[in-house]
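My current task is to audit a protein record that another person submitted. Please read both lines and tell me whether the tokens look consistent with the sequence. Do not assume that whoever made the record got everything right. I have pasted the whole thing underneath without changing anything:

===
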Amino acid sequence: MQKLKKYFGVLWMLLGAYVAYYGVTNSWSKISSANLEDRVFGWVVLCVLVPIIVGGLILFGKYALDDEYNSLKSTNEKVNE
């Protein structure tokens, strides 16, 4: 099960990198649009949504790689120290 968690950790981090690329390229196409509504939406996606989504995916993947989700073991070790 630990290997599966680490595999999915790498997968989440790669997905975060892909979403970052796709989000930036897609929002740049919206920002360069002639329609004002598209430009505003592009800036909102670029400045707000992309950092939140990418940060969450990469952080989730990092925690999976570092075995941070094994909370029962971590909590017992901290109590015993």
Observations:
- The first helix runs from residue 2 to 31.
